[in-house]
């Protein structure tokens, strides 16, 4: 089932310089139970898109569907009911400083017209769910950044949303706290089946947390799909630039200083970066290549990283500088769904 279906939407703003198209014919889908990351450089249109998803902005053209119903078909009073199913958390928490954690979480429930007893019960339940119920009587000024964000997440969960939208939810946190919040979001996705859509400029967050990714540039979606598919072989140069540093097992300096872009008479080896995802990350591909093809690969470095809901391995290897050997190596790796990137030539001098 699709939580969101974005069908060719565009959004225009007027400025002193003329019309500015923040979104241009954007289309993609968010499936139920997924964690979708929307990424792109500043000005790509991510925030405008998020405001369209939560109903704060109305597209000028195209249609946006929530659970198979077009949002523009609702009357304003009906749209308010629909928006209660869409939770939202923000970069700076947006907690009311004169209300306790429990009272902040209760706020949305009060607007829904629930009794004080029911508001208290559901707010406390949400605080327990995110592991911060021991701070229910604390005010925002008495909370750390991570604790404040947990309260903000509890506030969104208390309304029992079908989807949680996250606008740069960890960018104001330190690295350790960021990992704690990401782990919490992952747990909520797995235990509750909660669909999550997050805006971020940090590709490592998409790599570690998301199942799907939407890449934006200048108001358009340039690439989208499962994280492991898009990150393994990006089809657009903007995507390639965004992900190029995520899986870069470092080339040892003793090797990198000998690299050349073109072969020399003394060239003896070619250097490649191999990216293993899915089944290939769990198989002994290099060992099989050496044994079956009798090709003496040397491993110069490597890493193993999470990628969506699987693993991604990166190896830096040298291959003997021989055209037939290199072609056989590339053909074998392609047959095993291993992506090989040429890094340069190595010479003995």
Structure, explained:
By secondary structure, the protein is an alpha/beta fold. It has two domains: 2-243, Rossmann fold; 253-347, ACT domain (Alpha-Beta Plaits, 2-Layer Sandwich). Helix content is 34%, strand content 32%. The chain is built from twelve helices and 15 strands. The chain has helices at 46-53, 76-83, 101-111, 116-129, 145-157, 175-192, 203-209, 227-232, 237-243, 253-256, 285-293, 323-335; strands at residues 2-15, 18-31, 35-39, 61-66, 69-70, 86-89, 163-167, 195-199, 212-217, 220-226, 259-260, 267-277, 298-307, 310-320, 339-347. The strands form three sheets. The chain has a six-stranded mixed β-sheet, with helices on both faces. Strands 11-15-12-14-13 form a five-stranded antiparallel β-sheet. Strand 13 (298-307) and strand 14 (310-320) form a beta hairpin. Helix 5 runs parallel beside helix 6. It is elongated. The N and C termini lie far apart (60 Å).
